[in-house]
């Protein structure tokens, strides 16, 4: 399995000091990095590919944010956004779009997520179908694989959004964020067993069990701890992952908050490598 770092921790610096950040991430022992579309457009992909190669890195995934309800309300907007991802990835060896299905983040703690349709089975079936059509188009036309990246809202109302995406799609893949899954009260391994044929990408975090009781999305987001220092059973989890998922799966260490340095990634990757 391949290990990557999510560069989101470095924020704008990945854009303004690209070489310095890539050098830092290369020193962690990672084979690749995940980058956000907000930092690099398709016109920069050739240059970025050369930069990555200079540091012995590959792009594991290109992270994009697309509003979930737009897949029903404005599908052309979604298609145009994802097309930019396909254009960016045209020169990259690993053609993975990692898509966050966004909601109004300030309403993530509302009982209806700010839009009751997101908890309605009929609407979710339509939405999932539209997402899957885009996944099929990207794969057929460009060899780009669309992976859905979850946060907490997909697990509301007995995981109704996540269930709909799993049941009503055939081509969509899943880039499960195991941290958000676990703090939402669900067991990542059990879900991986359900969808093992459509998982080739994981976001890895660690958490303390008390985080499950935190009342807000923002508080949970700030509560994640260093990989290996929390209550996630990483030896047991990785043993299951090795049985369930193939060798070409990307394991992406994600830190969003806290101290900005590569040492955190070095420590996390050293721990992960002992489980592989």
In short:
By secondary structure, the chain is an alpha/beta fold.
Topology, element by element:
Elements: E1 2-6, H1 13-16, H2 18-26, E2 32-36, H3 45-54, E3 58-67, H4 70-73, H5 75-88, E4 96-102, H6 121-142, E5 145-149, H7 156-167, E6 173-177, H8 178-183, H9 188-195, E7 201-204, H10 217-223, H11 234-244, E8 250-253, H12 263-275
Parallel strand pairs: 1-2, 1-8, 2-3, 3-4, 4-5, 5-6, 6-7, 7-8
Helix pairs in contact: 5-6, 6-7
Main sheet: strand order:
1-2-3-4-5-6-7-8
Class by SSE composition: alpha/beta
Share of helix among residues? 40-55%
Q: What is the name of the CATH superfamily?
A: Divalent-metal-dependent TIM barrel enzymes
Mean pLDDT rating: 97
Radius of gyration (Å): 18 Å
Query: SSE order in H/E notation?
Result: EHHEHEHHEHEHEHHEHHEH
Fill in the CATH topology.
TIM Barrel
Number of strands: 8
Report the principal-axis shape: globular
- How much beta, percentage-wise? 15-25%
The CATH architecture designation is Alpha-Beta Barrel
Q: What oligomeric state best describes the polypeptide chains here?
A: single chain
Distance between the amino and carboxyl termini: 8 Å
The biggest beta sheet reads: 8 strands, parallel, barrel
CATH top level is Alpha Beta
Total domains, how many?
Answer: 1
Number of helices: 12
Structure notes:
The protein has 12 helices and 8 strands. Helix 5 packs parallel to helix 6 and helix 6 packs across helix 7 (156-167). The protein is globular and about 50 Å long. The protein has an 8-stranded parallel beta barrel, surrounded by 5 helices. By secondary structure, the chain is α/β, with parallel strands linked by helices. The protein has one domain: Divalent-metal-dependent TIM barrel enzymes (TIM Barrel, Alpha-Beta Barrel).
């Amino acid at each position: 399995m391949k290990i990557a770092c999510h560069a989101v921790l470095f924020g704008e610096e990945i854009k303004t000091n690209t070489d310095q950040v890539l050098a830092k991430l290369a020193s962690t022992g990672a084979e690749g990095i995940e980058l956000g579309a907000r930092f690099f457009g398709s016109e920069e992909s050739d240059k970025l590919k050369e930069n990555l190669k200079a540091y012995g890195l590959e792009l594991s995934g290109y992270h994009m944010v697309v509003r979930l309800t737009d897949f029903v309300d404005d599908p052309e907007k979604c298609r145009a956004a994802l097309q930019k991802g396909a254009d960016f990835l045209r020169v990259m060896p690993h053609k993975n779009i990692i898509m966050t299905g966004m909601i109004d983040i300030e309403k993530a703690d509302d009982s209806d997520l700010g839009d009751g349709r997101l908890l309605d089975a009929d609407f979710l079936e339509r939405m999932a179908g539209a997402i899957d059509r885009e996944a099929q188009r990207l794969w057929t036309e460009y060899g780009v694989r669309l992976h859905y990246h979850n946060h907490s809202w997909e697990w509301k109302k007995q995981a109704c959004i996540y269930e709909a995406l799993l049941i009503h799609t055939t081509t969509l893949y899943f880039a499960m964020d195991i941290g958000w899954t676990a703090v939402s009260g669900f067991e990542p391994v059990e879900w991986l067993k359900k969808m093992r044929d459509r998982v080739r990408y994981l976001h890895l975090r660690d958490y303390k069990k008390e985080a499950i009781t935190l009342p807000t999305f923002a508080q949970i987001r700030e509560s994640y701890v260093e990989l290996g220092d929390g209550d996630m059973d990483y030896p047991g989890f990785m043993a299951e992952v090795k049985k369930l998922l193939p060798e070409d799966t990307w394991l992406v260490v994600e830190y969003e908050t806290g101290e900005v340095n590569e040492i955190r990634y070095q420590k996390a990757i050293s721990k992960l490598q002992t489980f592989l």
